[in-house]
Write a structure and sequence with these properties.
By secondary structure, the chain is an alpha/beta fold. The chain contains 10 helices and 9 strands. The protein has helices spanning 17-27, 46-53, 63-69, 87-93, 110-118, 133-139, 150-156, 196-206, 218-224, 242-251, and strands at residues 13-14, 35-38, 56-60, 75-79, 99-104, 124-132, 159-167, 172-173, 180-187.
């Protein structure tokens, strides 16, 4: 029986064989590696992944799809909302120091998923995700560009990222109204030591009014914390490189 894509789950199923092959090549799965796929859907990527790995863990929220996936002998199915999955615990259960994480993420909640995984980055070897191209453009954006945003800063301080593949709408059924792409995210081997919650608050404040100079937003926030150091607030949030945000939060 054909599965009808559910709008509430943001379902768009990948059907283009050549694109699927390119994604699998970019991921380069090796036999025996502990890998987790988020949102396997109709198993377009799942099948070629499991053929190379031997076994795969999948996280699927849709009850009907989860039931269908359980029929596959080489899959372990976690029927859950990915935002409720404790990846640190999962790595411990699998007795592995690092997980490889892949998936075609639901575009309507891609940012919350990325921030959720950031909390478990210590147990992640790498991540390969299909996302809305516009989101990936923001993730990898350089300072002083229109795409440079809170998302850019909050991910670049912790990951090395690159856009590895463009995926047009006609590669899916039903086709989304946007272009897609695949991003590779590799956690930095020696990330700076920071208070992540403070960094989140600071960056959110800085980008809250991105058209205005930082003295109106971040400047006031720093005054409230009795900051006595040097930081140029005569700039806009998008003009400040990631390293400067990191140095500022460390000085606080």
């Amino acid at each position: 029986m054909k599965h009808i894509a559910r709008k509430r789950f943001g379902q768009h199923f990948l059907t283009d064989g050549a694109i699927i092959e390119s994604i699998i090549d970019a991921i380069a799965p090796q036999a025996g590696e502990p890998m987790v796929e988020i949102g396997p859907g109709l198993a377009a990527m799942t099948q070629p992944l499991v053929e190379r790995l031997g076994h795969l863990h999948v996280i699927e929220l849709d009850r009907d799809l989860a039931a269908r996936l359980r029929e596959h002998p080489h899959l372990s199915v976690i029927e859950s909302d990915v935002l409720r999955v404790d990846f640190t615990q999962l790595a411990a259960d699998l007795k592995t120091p690092k997980l490889r994480v892949v998936g075609n993420l639901p575009y309507n909640i891609s940012s919350p998923i990325l921030f959720h995984l950031l909390e478990h980055v210590a147990v992640v070897q790498d991540q390969h995700f299909m996302l809305q191209k516009e989101v990936i453009d923001r993730m990898v954006a350089k300072p002083s560009t229109s795409d440079y945003s809170r998302l850019s800063v909050m991910l670049q301080w912790r990951y090395d990222m690159e856009n590895v593949l463009f995926v047009p709408p006609e590669s899916f059924d039903p086709p989304p109204r946007v272009d897609s792409a695949v991003v590779r995210m590799v956690p930095l081997a020696e990330p700076p030591l920071i208070n992540v919650k403070l960094m989140e608050e600071m960056v959110k404040t800085a980008f809250s009014q991105r058209r205005k100079l930082l003295r109106h937003t971040l400047g006031r926030w720093l005054e409230g914390r009795n900051f006595a150091g040097q930081f140029d607030v005569q700039r806009r949030a998008e003009e400040v490189p990631v390293a400067e945000y990191v140095a500022l939060v460390q000085s606080l």
